[in-house]
Amino acid sequence: ETGVTQSPTHLIKTRGQQVTLRCSSQSGHNTVSWYQQALGQGPQFIFQYYREEENGRGNFPPRFSGLQFPNYSSELNVNALELDDSALYLCASNIAGALTDTQYFGPGTRLTVL
Amino acid sequence: AQSVTQPDIHITVSEGASLELRCNYSYGATPYLFWYVQSPGQGLQLLLKYFSGDTLVQGIKGFEAEFKRSQSSFNLRKPSVHWSDAAEYFCAVGEANQAGTALIFGKGTTLSVSS
């Protein structure tokens, strides 16, 4: 148990639709990162939010966007879904400012795009 | 660009035997290195991490890893494997930023344990 929760557990969408995934971080963790894990691959860094602002982004297009709220919750939004967006989406939280701080992962949301 | 290579896609080990999972990284500066484990339907759990100091790092569940700068490696070891260790193992390198690190993962190694 990491104290990081994600919802929903599973989600099925069709190509072109929009989706919102949610994450609840550990209390006191002011940084959240999102990762995409395609089947048989390692997680890929999408972006990171710190104090409600985007702090870094991986190689993902602008249709992937996020929000972070003061109550330690956050969202990942994906517009114009494509088949290749089918993956496990993981969020991870940590306390900023300590480079040695551990990122704690949630169980993930499995997104299927048909 | 930073990258992580896990050369072994799938490894099978007998219960009670020793284990070594390989990880090679490419990073310009001193790397922050991690090993995570993922069981089916679960998120990622941190086994151990290296930032500086002693190159032999102890982790949870009896795992250890050794950082070898000359070989750009951070191999994970366990002296005696248990059936419950069967899972997917990921090596990662951390890219430091203002808020911590963004993790770059390898493709993972699937560990099967035979009885």
Topology:
The complex is a heterodimer of chains A (114) and B (115).
Chain A: E1 5-7, E2 10-13, E3 19-24, E4 31-37, E5 44-50, E6 53-57, E7 64-68, E8 73-78, E9 87-94, E10 104-105, E11 109-113
Parallel strand pairs in A: 2-11
Antiparallel strand pairs in A: 1-3, 3-8, 4-5, 4-9, 5-6, 7-8, 9-10, 9-11
Chain B: E1 3-5, E2 10-14, E3 19-21, E4 24-26, E5 32-38, E6 44-50, E7 56-58, E8 64-68, E9 73-78, E10 87-97, E11 100-105, E12 109-114
Parallel strand pairs in B: 2-12
Antiparallel strand pairs in B: 1-4, 3-9, 5-6, 5-10, 7-8, 8-9, 10-11, 10-12
Seen as an oligomer or otherwise, the chain set is heterodimer
Order of helices and strands of chain A: EEEEEEEEEEE
Alpha-carbon distance between the two ends of chain A: 32 Å
Structural class of chain A: mainly beta
The H/E string of chain B reads: EEEEEEEEEEEE
Structural class category of chain B: mainly beta
> What is the beta-strand fraction of chain B?
over 45%
| Radius of gyration of CA atoms of chain B, rounded to a whole number | 14 Å
Using the alpha-carbon principal axes, give the shape of chain B: globular
Low-confidence stretches of chain A are none
Question: What is the makeup of the main sheet of chain A?
Answer: 7 strands, mixed
**Most extensive chain contact?**
A-B, 34 and 27 residues
- Sheet having the most strands of chain B: 6 strands, mixed
Helix content of chain B: under 10%
Cα-to-Cα separation, first versus last residue of chain B: 41 Å
Low-confidence stretches of chain B: none
Overall pLDDT metric of chain B: 91
What's the total number of strands of chain A? 11
Q: What overall geometry of chain A do the principal axes of the alpha carbons give?
A: globular
